Structure prediction request, 210 residues.
Amino acid sequence: MLPTLPGVTELTARCKSLGGGEKRPQDRVEAADFLNQAPDPAAINIKALRRRGAKQMNRSESRGFTLIELVVVITILGILAAFAIPKFVALDSQARIATISGLAGSVKSAASLARGLSMATSNAAGPVVMEGATVTLLNSYPDASATGIASAVNSNNGAGGDFTFTAGSGSTTAATWSKNGAPTPAGCAVSYTAPAAGFTPTVVTTTTGC
Prediction:
């Protein structure tokens, strides 16, 4: 409902009086002056709406989170953490297992390649050269030393690398690569045992500690 404007009642009465009787020019001038001086009701409503909207915006901007909203958010985060964290841990373990499996394949391939080179060059006692690296042999296969199978595989070993290499000896003590960063490095490893005469090397993977 529009507010009652100043002068409207008086203007209405004056206009009614102009409806009958003699219409004087002075009455017409006064009526026109009343109309010109009266404010625009639409403008008054727009200003009021603007003021009301500004107050509502200020209240919404200053409004914070309620306790119920905070509890709901914390509950959702807890549920996500309960399901997501174990999956991330499982993915990390699977990645280490895949790395160990890949290294075991590389060890077998390197041993077979060294065997082929020794046969091709009729050099069963070795050494042979693989990709610029000298590889010492035992019974036509790389031995378990750092210059044998470790040189043939050329993996990323060391404190800052993927694996820690421990050399073996002869055909009885195995060389091992343990995965750095595993929960139990000794249980996340690849071992290589050089063969006795007439046999092939033994490559074993252990993933229980990955």
